[in-house]
Structures are given as structure tokens and as C-alpha cells.
Design goal:
alpha+beta, four-stranded antiparallel β-sheet, 34% strand
Amino acid sequence: MLAGSVFSLNSCTKSGPQGPAGADGNANVIGINRVVTVSSWTLTGTTYSATFSDPDITSDIVNNGVVEVYKAYGTNEWTNLPDINGITSTVFDFYVGGFTIYIQNSDGTTPANPGTISFRDVIISASQRQAHPNTNWKNYNEANAAINGTTAASQVNATVAP
């Protein structure tokens, strides 16, 4: 009986035409690593800021999609913005063509220069949001899992491709 089942498994053939190739990557999600250095921060009043141009933030993204920014705390440890650490908060806003990160103190004093900080921004289309309705996009690992089917923090990168 074992010989018969081995024979029948080996004699199976595929019939019909080959289907189309699947798409590589995910055109609906874009993620970019960004490093803001000590000299890249701009101080205006009591707020430090760093502004980024990003043509992937279109009017459709602003009106129907999501832009999330995550701040690095050590290796593979990311927190979403806004982030509050003591009296210092890190927030961002986004608009067609870019976004700005702000660092300020809640008591109105000027914070120390933030130094070098790594950020990751993830741009998510409305269709991607709809495809993953239960994803907490503010949680980096959940967003990454929805994007790539994995929780490996290193996956979200310049053009998010699984």
C-alpha cells in the first residue's frame, strides 16, 4: 500500500495554464527610515523641528490614508508619535508633499538639542487600511506585520517589499 501511494504521489501532474505572476512588494504602503542629526534640527522659539519632503504623501493620502511616524529607542524598539518623555514631547504633522517632526517641552522651556534620532515614517493608503481593518497602525510591530506578514522590525524600509 505504501508503494502504491508513493507511486500515485509521484505520478501527479499539473494541468491547465500557468497563472499570472504575483505582484512583488506592496504599492499601497511606503516606509522610509530617516535619521535627524544634531545639526539637522531647526530651533524656532522653544521648539525644535525637522521637515521632510515626501512626494508619496499625496492629497489622497492626506484625505483618506494614514501617515505614522515612529521614533527609535534602542535596537528594534520603536514607539509611535506622539511620544512624551518627562516634559518633552515629540509630535508630527503631515501635509501634501511632506511632514514635520516637532520636539518641545510642556512647560514652555526650550529642550536641549535632541541630538541624533532615527525615525521611520510609514505611509498607508486607504485601500491598505481597508484590507487590514483590525490593525493598530500606531503599533510598529502590528503595522509591520500587516505590511509584510512578519514582526521583524527591520522589514519596513525605503520601499516596503516583503
